[in-house]
Structures are given as structure tokens and as C-alpha cells.
Write a structure and sequence with these properties.
By secondary structure, the chain is mainly alpha-helical. The chain is 98% helix and 0% strand. The longest helix has 99 residues.
Amino acid sequence: MAAPHQEADALASLEERIVRAVELVSQLRAEKEALREENENLRGENKALHTSNDAALQEAAEARAQAAKLAEELEGLRAERGQVRGRIEKLLNQIDQLHTA
């Protein structure tokens, strides 16, 4: 009579282990799905950040080009200002010579 009781205990133990295994598989599948969704979201965020970074790099390159253009223009204006200053000084000297003559 002890053998059927032991078989029942063994069967109950096996049944309990199978139930735990099924619960674990279900839990792992849910975790896998949650991680898959999180991974997909992170990939989307990563793509958006790359796009934003590319746009920022493009803007920076355009700003550098604009700064170089403005620096060149500034140099030209400074040179022109020097020429105008020279001409004005020359004219003022001529006016001074007229007054002293």
C-alpha cells in the first residue's frame, strides 16, 4: 500500500514542478516581449537622436561656413576703411595746405 502513496506523492511533485515550469515559461515569454518592445523603442529613440545629431552637425557646418564668409567680409571692410581713412587724411592735408598758403 505504501507504493501507491509514494507514486501519488511523486506524481504530485512532478505535477507541481510542471506547473512551476509552465509559469516560468509564461513569465519568461512576457519578459521577452517587454524587452522586445523596449528594444524597439530604444532603436526608435536612437534613430531620432542620430537624425537630430546629423541635423546639428549640418547646422554647425553651415554656421562655420557663414562665420568664415563673415570673417572674410570683415577683412574686406577693414581694408576698405583703411583706404577711406587714407583718402580722408590726404584730403585734410590738402585742405590744411590751402589754409596755410
